[in-house]
Amino acid sequence: MNSFSFSLPQNIRFGRGMLDELGTVAETAKAKKAFIVSGPHLYKAGLVDRCAESLARTGISCESFTETEGNPSVETVNKATERFRESNADLIVAFGGGSPIDVAKAVAILGK
Hints:
The chain has a three-stranded parallel beta sheet, sandwiched between helices. It is built from five helices and three strands; from the N terminus they run H-E-H-H-E-H-E-H. It has helices at residues 22-28, 40-44, 47-56, 74-87, 98-110; strands spanning 33-37, 61-65, 91-94. It is globular. The chain is an alpha/beta fold.
């Protein structure tokens, strides 16, 4: 196998009120457009829209992928990667638990 290396700069925030700080964090990263990776339950609860609103308050547009299932499939990762590439986003936001985080990490690697 060939050797390789990669770097994934991460900024993990957790706790009450952190969702409202998303736009400020993204602005600090000099992001122009974000790609939110989440799941259908957080989307239906309106929380992905709150992410988008926080980003919009700082002038950052976004697109989202909310089809992440528990134990994400290769097909889900491929679909999210394709949507990320089409979005031309320069920031990936993983919103949720382990599955959205796993998909977002895979998209960060494959989407370059």
